[in-house]
Amino acid sequence: MASYQFNAVGYISSPYKQKFAIPRQPGLIAEATGYLVLEDDYSDDAIVRGIDSFSHLWLLFVFHETADKGWSPMVRPPRLGGNARKGVFATRATFRPNPVGLSVVKLEGVERKNGKLMLKLSGIDLLDGTPVLDIKPYLPYADALPDAAGGFADAAPFTAMTVSFAEQASHFCLQQTQHPDLKIFIEKVLKQDPRPSYKKQREGEQSYGMTLYNYNIKWTVNGEHNHVTEILQLPE
């Protein structure tokens, strides 16, 4: 069996610091912004010349957090409630023979900070620190196929989840200035209902926490309602 070795061209700087709460597909939360920070070997401005004429990019990346956990020929897609089994090649599950993923992201610009060449991105569904193996431009005439069949995920996921904020949490979002869209970002993440499928069947109030950017967000779920109870600043 042939094997190949690849080097990462860069790494993702993302508001998602843990796998929990990441939307299950890209583009679902436009406010999810981050950077692809290119490695020094690829920091020549020439390498991205012309890239700003494209609105979107394909990123080929590594599922680095689960890469050492092996793979399975059958998986349980969250989209099917975690109850039905499908072949791994019929899903976008992380536990694959080669732990690589593909994500389409919106390019917001090219920047250079502290000597690092960076691509600013939005609509990302990538964990902080994700290694990126390659970047390719998205071509609408070839990549957008309106008549394609989407199998068991033929339409964007929908939940009826609602979101409210306690006074402290709402005030925190307003007084911080680093992320102007923080409140709507949190709201959209929670409307995706990031809970594991088996917990969505439980009755009564449930408490959760997640890290976005350098904030610890705490909330409760009761039925189809999320209530953000507290937001805390984490040490840099």
TrEMBL record:
InterPro entries associated with the record: TrmO-like_N, TrmO_C, UPF0066_cons_site, YaeB-like, YaeB-like_sf, YaeB_N_sf
Residue ranges of domain TsaA-like in the record: 6-147
Bilayer-crossing regions: none
CDD domains in the cross-refs: UPF0066 (cd09281)
Pfam families: TrmO_C, TrmO_N
PROSITE patterns given in the database record: TSAA_1 (PS01318), TSAA_2 (PS51668)
Keywords on record: S-adenosyl-L-methionine
NCBIfam families from the UniProt entry: tRNA_TsaA
Family listed: Belongs to the tRNA methyltransferase O family.
Name of protein: tRNA (N6-threonylcarbamoyladenosine(37)-N6)-methyltransferase TrmO
Lineage of source species: Bacteria, Pseudomonadati, Pseudomonadota, Gammaproteobacteria, Chromatiales
Gene expressing this chain: tsaA
